[in-house]
## 1
Amino acid sequence: MTGRNVWSSSRERMRRFPELFARCSAEAAVYGKCVVSTTSGKQELQKDLCLKEFEALKTCFINAAKQRMK
Amino acid sequence: MSSRPGGAMNVFNRNMKRKQKTWAATLPDSEKYDYLRDEVGSRVADRIYDIARTFPLALDMGCGKSHIAEHLSKDVVEQMFLTDISDASLRMERQSEMPTHCMMADEEFLPFQENTFDLVVSSLSLHWINDLPGALRQVHRVLKPDGVFVGAMVGGETLYELRCSLQLAELEREGGFAPHISPYTAVTDLGNLLGQAGFNMLTVDVDEIQVHYPGMFEIMSDLQGMGESNCAWNRKPMLHRDTILAAAAIYKEMYGSEDGFVPATFDILFMIGWKPHESQAKPAKRGSATVSFADLAKIRSQTSINTDKSDTS
């Protein structure tokens, strides 16, 4: 059971996430607030309700990943 | 979900659980993920020390790397059998004072004769069992009369932060959600389960353990390292990467503290049950009471009058 399998490889990829995520904390907070606001307000959570905010977070995340590669 | 004979559910893929545990035990840094098992193992050992007795023969079912025996002295348990579904965990058995015998066995099928053990213990393994009532009946069967079962399992609201974050993220990103966290036993059901399995003089209590992590990715990575990934048949085999990213942001926003850490809550249910024996205390015989229940109201009104007086003064 040692060696490479689907768990090891996904784990390898996940290992870089925290660092990349930390560089986008502002975008993450904006998206998080958008989703969390629906748990208390009248607005019901629907698909793509916070699409704009998520796109910003994802763009930041991808850019951070690219910078790391260079 | 398919059902088994006897009405038992088949919720978890036990073969998958074995693979996850074996994979986790063979990680080069696997002892880094033992913190929860060590903590709960020592708390189970504490409860065993509370029983003023020496147990000649004990069984730890689902022992992992043996996280209970290392906290026990040989004055309490003289000999111990250790079982686990993963042989890789057993091979990493911790040192303990008393002689131990390792066996690879499934907690759902205990390969022991009736009336064998004076004590059965289990820590953090019962929550992956399909047929919990059946497993408890088997524990009851292998115990000697007047033997005791001391167990701990995660249950209740364990990992509710992760569950909520993933649900919100999936709703917003994908428009619907699937279960990612395993279903848990509620503490209120545990007493009934033990009673139905034939145990008496039950004790059930809950400890809440909160662990602080840098972020959601570390929580998921640690759970995997513990061999505690979900193995329910109806789990969604893959979590979309966008959803993970979204969930991490939601987790931080909803539960994160000011110093940047996020908490993960584990509700640990502890249970103690005894196999009946004639030497044990029993309810008094019917009609043996010397005070009538009808008088209880009088006693209460008397005391309430007294307290009323003291309140108004």
## 2
Amino acid sequence: MEKELRLMKGNEALAEAAIRAGADGYFGYPITPQSEVMEYLMQEKPHERTGMVVLQAESEVAAINMVYGGAGCGKMVMTSSSSPGVSLKQEGITYIAGAELPCLIVNVVRGGPGLGTIQPAQSDYFQATKGGGHGDYNLIVLAPSSVQEMADFVELAFDLAFKYRNPAMILSDGAIGQMMEKVWLKPQKERNLKLPEWGTTGKTPGRERNIITSLDLNPAKQEQFNHKLQAKYREMEKNEVRYEEFQCDDAEYLFVAYGTSARVCQKAIQLARAEGIKVGLLRPITLFPFPKKIIHERAGQVKGILCVEMSAGQMVEDVRLAVNGLIPVEHWGRMGGIVPTPEEAVENLKSKIIGG
Amino acid sequence: MTEEIIIAGFGGQGVLSMGKIMAYSGIMQDMEVSWMPSYGPEMRGGTANVTVILSEERISSPIIRVFDTAIILNQQSMDKFEKSVKPGGTLIYDGNGITRHPERKDITVYRIDAAEEATKLESTKTFNMIVLGGFLKVRPIIKLENVLKGLKKSLPERYHHMIPMNESALMRGMEIINRLN
């Protein structure tokens, strides 16, 4: 099968990419604005195409525990949901992180808190990047800003998850999930039927039994394990930082934004530059590991940074840590499911950074 | 070249599918495209709208506040989007059910009585194709042959026998659109 050009919603592109990446299983429970993921998978019947299992669980909690089970066997498994559903999954996610298992969790974020709205938001940044569940752990977090990246990041997320034996998350939002753009789909990959040696695949002569657990009642051993996890996260910070820069070379000011907000900022840059304001965009692609080094470098070249987020200001805290007081860093955003407009972004750049 | 378009009307008028055909047609012409619908409760029984962007360059924001062209198919949408057309831009509307006609003088206004025409053709389903034909006449960004290719790509195969009917609706739309100012 060749690469294929299609017009798809972000949610559909992600689902098709999961089949083509050779995923073994998807377990989910419907919620707007990501229901197309499972709808698409059910229509496509991937079991007939590749043998991939798709199952609608009885709840989000059941779905994440099915992922825990599948991942424990060394299978390439995933789930997807939107904000309230991802909150329900947090217990499972911390267990998966504690058991050092690879898997993919997709959050197509909607406005919160609580049931909130069904419109796009980015107010789950803290939950995604700072743990979400209990205990010291991190997910690998990828933030797509186009339908193409919704597709491309599925395979990338699985690759990173298996490389580090760590859960990975795609943190998207309702706008990217719902919009259609053109997308190049990769050819079908064979499912990998050879399971990793750490998986619980049944009693195998000649090796110690594999145990998947997140429990160790010996605190000294548990601390050792925590050190091991932390070393792994530092390794990710060294090797896996991804970001994109947009008109940064001559910039006097900088937007830092991810996902849909980064798209809004690209338009804002066109508008601002037409008025003679030299502004660029730094778009974090990995939210964990966060691109702090490049942000620190850029802070030495520009006069101020505006973080544009569809939240009350969450990523701005990481940007401030990276900038470490060198220059002013402000946040501006919309909440509750409202997407900021490029015009508003320019106005706020002027009032909060340039005039500030 | 970038064309930023809003199509707005009632749910059921084929607003979203018209946008989808536009987007597919753009792809057939090697353009970058985005299709951003309003989704959720506002679509249930109320207004439906979709932002379509066709561009020769990478598309920045798929969500925008002002448009090069607004295609307006009911009064609520007129109230909401007449003011959102860029100065010098284009407004196309169906006169059916419109009680307050567009008033702006700094944009080009076209009227297309597509609902009436679709009734005459005894095929109300071709309504959105008549409107699309009108759009293609006054904003010839996409070639008709690419629209037909786009139509083929966006319709499931079981509906392909309806392509000739859609083609004549497109042609009819090109004929009946009227410039008002």
## 3
Amino acid sequence: MTWELAANVVTGGLLIGLVYALMALGLSVIFGVTRIVNFAHGEMTVLAMFAAVILFRQFGLDPILMSPIVAAGLFALGYGLQRYLVAPFVTRPEHEQFILLLAVAFALTNGMLIVFGPEAQGILTDYSFDSYEIGPLIVDKTKAIAGLISLVVAALLLGFFRYSATGRAIRACADNLIGAGVVGLNVPYLYALTFAIGAATVGVAGCLLSIIMDATPVLGPELTLLAFIIVIVGGLGSMTGALLGGVLIGVSEALAGLLFTPSLKSMLSFGLLILVLVVRPQGLFGKSGAR
Amino acid sequence: MLSVRDLTLFYGDAQALDGVGFDIGEGEIVAIVGANGAGKTSLIRAVAGMERPAGGTIRFRGADIAGWPPHRICNTGIGQVAEGRQIFPSLSVMENLQMGAMLPRARKRFRQSLDEVIALFPRLEERRDQAAGTLSGGEQQMLAIGRCLMGRPELILFDEPSLGLAPTIVADVFRIIRRLHEGGMSIVLVEQNVSASLRLSSRAYVLENGRVVAEGASAELANDPRIRQAYLGL
């Protein structure tokens, strides 16, 4: 094995890791604010992937250019889901929330099986096999675009929460829910908005994934699990943690394929998860003592 | 200004308020006193919309606001300085103040409110970029009051503002409440520090087991042998 090969594999893993990170960021945002764990996260990602596939196959529209449209659709779905389905469960015990979101996940997966069928469906754009040569590195164009867009969207998201008044209000809700009521923040609206933003993030991530991997309904649970591993490794509720966790998982999956066999890639991510849980249970960027 | 009638509130089967009524006029400062568990905080929370009353009316400037969500009630001009301060610990002091001004009624006058609050609490300006959770208890109470003022309230509900503060800071807090009152603010003061709140207020209501058992001018209540025995330990 040459070091060029290793560098190429690591770069590819890093770029896919950024897309994973973006997906996990959605989960992290929703949990960090509403304390609801979105068990339908991977399923929503697959829904976005299929949306991209349909737009491409039926209308010839590029998945990257369509990502704002798909994100808008997922935004509306997320808003409605929180407002009308999840909101009454916010104050209920966690296992009841768990069952509700799990039911949404099953409904989405099986709905997609009925509509799209079980076969894997991919997208072949005219740049699907292009690549960039940067010194010794050969980078797939799809992965490079997907990774960079993920980074940009993640930065926008961080900026929104840091600098916009609405973003701050959402952080305030996460920080002290009673305080949010005291100052008269519209908490039900902000919760729905948070869910919508998390879902829109997943909408973009799904579009980006659709040019890297094939969409199939059974991918949903796998992606949900992946998003979980990432946010737990990075630290629940921490946005930078989710970013770093995603990159770590992406690189470790790629290295597993290089050093052992691609089918062992999950073992390595789970190994990383166990290692983090043993050494630093709150996650790399998590606050200790957090719920 | 605010007129509460027959207010009842339940937590599950437990009755917290049982037909409570009280009034507060423009610019008045009214104390609500009583032992722990008498229903003082429940009363504040019901008026602020954070608990849904089972019955009764809460009229503020003519509109019955009973059962409205808290953000709507805040926007009518009822501010709240809650028990335990309820600041946003991981947000900076400035961000906390901005959150107080998110109400539609307050957004446009943000700069003016900020100048007023900083004139009242220069300490907050010194600590503007510091995480609010790192402030001392007294500073956090100043921040809680400042944040409330950012919403441009016309009536402020103070819930145990002296709780957990050092005696010198408590004196500061009461001085500020007096100053706000002198500036024309209407104030409802809920306190377990009965003697101080009777000195500060013009009228007072005594709550026991979710009912008003006595009301009147604060000076008279302070001389009432029953009140002196039950609440002032005299």
